[in-house]
């Protein structure tokens, strides 16, 4: 599973407790910088999508998006095309429910 989507995706059963307004107020919104830190409306900001591309892990060949990377796995949408889209996988989650998601 790609890292960023894996953090928030329901399939991962990720711990999202650190995204609650209460947690942010207690641990992040402190001091002068914390005073201007906003409560996220949709998705929390983060540096993961940007930072992880600087980690040389062998993931992410620019010429081959189908290899997958930190942001997910792509597949050509038309034969011989250079247009790629997220691959959708179907998995069984921790509750034994069959779910589909992009990774």
TrEMBL record:
Entry-linked InterPro entries: Ribo_hydro-like, Sde182_NH-like
Domain of life of the native organism: Eukaryota
GO MF terms held by the record: hydrolase activity, hydrolyzing N-glycosyl compounds
Pfam families, alphabetized: Sde182_NH-like
Protein name, as recorded: Cellulose-binding Sde182 nucleoside hydrolase-like domain-containing protein
Species for this entry: Aspergillus tanneri
Domain Cellulose-binding Sde182 nucleoside hydrolase-like: 4-74
């Amino acid at each position: 599973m790609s890292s960023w989507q894996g953090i928030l995706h329901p399939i991962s059963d990720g711990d999202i407790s650190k995204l609650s307004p209460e947690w942010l107020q207690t641990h992040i919104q402190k001091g002068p910088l914390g005073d201007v830190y906003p409560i996220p409306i949709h998705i929390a900001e983060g540096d993961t999508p940007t930072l992880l591309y600087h980690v040389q892990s062998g993931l992410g060949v620019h010429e081959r998006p189908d290899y997958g990377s930190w942001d997910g796995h792509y597949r050509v949408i038309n034969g011989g095309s250079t247009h790629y889209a997220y691959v959708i996988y179907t998995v069984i989650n921790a509750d034994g429910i069959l779910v589909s998601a992009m990774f």
